[in-house]
C-alpha cells in the first residue's frame, strides 16, 4: 500500500496504451486508485481498467482531449471538488516525425499542443487544488529526445525539452508547499513508437545492449511517488540503458 498519503489517487494522462497503461497498472498493484485519461481509445481504456480492478483498486475513466482546456476543466473540476489526487502523471504524447525543412506547421503545432500546452492546462488545474492540501507529486514523462535532440524530431524534441524546463520551474514554485515535481525521461522503450526505427543500428549505441520495458519506466514513476523519494524534486530521471549519460 502507498506509504505517503491517505489519498491514494493518481491521475494519468494518455493512459490507455503504452507507457501510460503500464504506469496505471503498476501503480494499481502498489495500492493506488487511478483516474485514467484517454482521448479516443475506449476499448484499450476499458482493458486497462479491468487490469486495475483485478488488482483490487478502482479506475475512473476520463475521456477528454488534454489539449482542450474547456473539456479538461468540465471533466475534472467536479471530481476535484470532492477529492484531490495525491499525484498527477502527465504522459499524453504523440509524434509527427519528419525533417524540419519538410515539416508542416500542423505537425509542429500538434506535437507542441499535446505535450506542452496540455501540461499548462492540466498543471494549472491540479496544482491549484494541490496547493491547499500542501502535498502532492507531479511527474512528467519526458524523453531522451528532449535531453539530447534527435534528427527528424525537432517538434518532439522541443516539446519534451520544454516539459523538462517547465517541470523544473514548477518544482521551484511548489516546493515550499511540499509538492514535488520531477520528470522521467525514457530512452528506447518497447512500445509502438519504436516499431519503425532501425534498431539494428541503434542498439549498439546503448551500453546495456537492449531496449527498455514499459515496466522499467513505470517502476521509476512508482518510486517517485513513494516516501523514499520525499527529498527529490526538480530532477530528470533518465531510463535509457546508458544511451545518454
Summarize the SSE layout with pairings.
Elements: E1 9-12, H1 18-29, E2 33-38, H2 42-54, E3 59-63, H3 69-82, E4 87-90, H4 105-133, E5 136-141, H5 144-148, H6 154-174, E6 179-186, H7 199-202, H8 214-224, E7 236-239
Parallel strand pairs: 1-2, 1-4, 2-3, 4-5, 5-6, 6-7
Helix pairs in contact: 1-2, 1-8, 3-4, 4-6
Which CATH architecture is right? 3-Layer(aba) Sandwich
Biggest sheet strand order reads 3-2-1-4-5-6-7
Number of domains in the coordinates? 1
CATH class call: Alpha Beta
Alpha-carbon Rg, integer:
17 Å
CATH level-3 fold name: Rossmann fold
The CATH superfamily label reads NAD(P)-binding Rossmann-like Domain
Query: How would you describe the oligomerization state of the chains in this entry?
Result: single chain
Helix content: 40-55%
Main β sheet profile: 7 strands, parallel
Number of strands: 7
Tell me the number of helical segments per DSSP (H or I, 4 or more residues long): 8
Name the beta content range. 15-25%
Question: Any overview of this molecule?
Answer:
The structure is a single chain. It contains 8 helices and 7 strands; from the N terminus they run E-H-E-H-E-H-E-H-E-H-H-E-H-H-E. The model has no long low-confidence stretch (mean pLDDT 94). Helices cover 44% and strands 15% of the residues. With 245 residues, the protein is of the alpha/beta class. It is globular, with a radius of gyration of 17 Å.
Main features:
Rossmann fold, 44% helix, alpha/beta, 7-stranded parallel beta sheet, 245 residues
Question: What is the compact description of this entry?
Answer:
The protein is α/β, with parallel strands linked by helices.
Amino acid at each position: 500500500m502507498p506509504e505517503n498519503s491517505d489519498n491514494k489517487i493518481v491521475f494519468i494522462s494518455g493512459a490507455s496504451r503504452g507507457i501510460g497503461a503500464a504506469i496505471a497498472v503498476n501503480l494499481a498493484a502498489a495500492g493506488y486508485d487511478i483516474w485514467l485519461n484517454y482521448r479516443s481509445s475506449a476499448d484499450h481504456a476499458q482493458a486497462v481498467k479491468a487490469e486495475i480492478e483485478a488488482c483490487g483498486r478502482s479506475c475512473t475513466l476520463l475521456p477528454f482531449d488534454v489539449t482542450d482546456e474547456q473539456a479538461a476543466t468540465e471533466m475534472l473540476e467536479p471530481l476535484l471538488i470532492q477529492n484531490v489526487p495525491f499525484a498527477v502523471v502527465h504522459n499524453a504524447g504523440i509524434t509527427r516525425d519528419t525533417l524540419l525543412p519538410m515539416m508542416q506547421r500542423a505537425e509542429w503545432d500538434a506535437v507542441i499542443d499535446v505535450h506542452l500546452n496540455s501540461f499548462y492546462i492540466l498543471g494549472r488545474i491540479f496544482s491549484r487544488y494541490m496547493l491547499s492540501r500542501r502535498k502532492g507529486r507531479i511527474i512528467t514523462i519526458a524523453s531522451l529526445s528532449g535531453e539530447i535532440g534527435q534528427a527528424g524530431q525537432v517538434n518532439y524534441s522541443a516539446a519534451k525539452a520544454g516539459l523538462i524546463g517547465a517541470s523544473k520551474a514548477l518544482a521551484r514554485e511548489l516546493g515550499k508547499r511540499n509538492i514535488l515535481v520531477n520528470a522521467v525521461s525514457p530512452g528506447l522503450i518497447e512500445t509502438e513508437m519504436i516499431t519503425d526505427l532501425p534498431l539494428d543500428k541503434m542498439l549498439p549505441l546503448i551500453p546495456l545492449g537492449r531496449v527498455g520495458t514499459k515496466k522499467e519506466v513505470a517502476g521509476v514513476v512508482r518510486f517517485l511517488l513513494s516516501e523514499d523519494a520525499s527529498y527529490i524534486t526538480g530532477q530528470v530521471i533518465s531510463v535509457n540503458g546508458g544511451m545518454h549519460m
